[in-house]
Specification:
single chain, mainly alpha, 5 helices, 64% helix, globular
Length: 90
């Protein structure tokens, strides 16, 4: 997992309510976490790429996070996918 993937996944997980999906994502992100020194760089790259804003997930970041979940063996939540159409580009 790249630092950027880690930053996006952790921001996405923090936006979710407590539950199984959140735990699965945080566990996967923890296993692929960069070193502490590289985490700041990863967060900065995610902000610069528009995937997060001040550490919070954006619409683009959510799309990227949802695309990564199957690669980590995590089933996507259909409610999360359906909500993307209602959110628009914020």
């Amino acid at each position: 997992m790249t630092g950027l993937q880690w930053a996006v996944l952790t921001a996405y997980a923090r936006s979710l309510p407590a539950g199984r999906l959140r735990r699965q994502i945080l566990t996967a992100a923890k296993e692929g976490a960069p070193t502490p020194a590289r985490r700041d760089v990863a967060r900065m790259v995610a902000d610069m790429g528009g995937m997060t804003r001040a550490g919070k997930i954006t619409y683009t970041g959510k799309l990227c996070a949802l695309a990564l979940l199957p690669r980590l063996g995590i089933q996507r939540d259909m409610d999360a996918l359906l909500s993307l159409g209602r959110e628009g580009r914020g």
